[in-house]
Amino acid sequence: MLGLSSSITHSSFDPLDLLGTYTSDFASGTDSWGDFSVSTGTQTKTANQSIGGRSGVLKVSYNADETVQFGLELATPWSEDFKIGDQVYVSLDFYFVDEDPQDGGTTNVPYFQAGDVYNPSRRISKGFGTAYWHTLAGTKTIIAGTNDENMRIGFASQDTAPGTGDHWYLDNVVVKHYRPK
């Protein structure tokens, strides 16, 4: 007998390095999310709000119809910019209240973007209806654009964007930034 063992040794191989993770906490503040390209009026952020059976969420309100790509922006809390070849995983919960629909009140198309605001190839987006919680989730490999440290959540078109009196809510934002080894 050759003394062969029946056990198998398993090893794991992860081809990606996790560079950073962000998890939102809107119970006590805006979590440092700022305005991005608000063209008209004011975008007001209010923490620790309640809607749709949840509390501790962020409310974003508008007093004018927006005319450009706009939304919220946050510099990554880790030291690395988003670069070509990186992978970004995002999950966020979104609730839209359409008080003054520019689009007829049927669909709103928010997006999450990792860096380089002018490069749609860095976006994860989904159309949503109004008045209940939706989840936007996905993984994106960055294939083009300039290096940038900012994460953005917003609307790419005035046709699907909030208008005067509209507001939306944000909860459970999780972002993971990976780079190939």
The number of helices is: 0
The tally of beta strands, per DSSP, is: 11
Q: Which band does the percent of strand residues land in?
A: over 45%
Q: Quick one: biggest sheet? A: 6 strands, antiparallel
**Coarse structural class:** mainly beta
- The shape, in one word, is globular
Span of the ends, CA to CA:
42 Å
Element-level helix/strand string: EEEEEEEEEEE
Unreliable stretches: none
Gyration radius, in Å: 20 Å
Estimated helix fraction: under 10%
Mean pLDDT: 79
Descriptive notes:
The chain has no helices and 11 strands. The chain has strands at 16-23, 34-36, 43-51, 54-62, 70-75, 87-97, 110-114, 123-125, 133-141, 150-155, 167-180.
Summarize the structure.
By secondary structure, the chain is mostly beta strands. The chain is 0% helix and 46% strand.
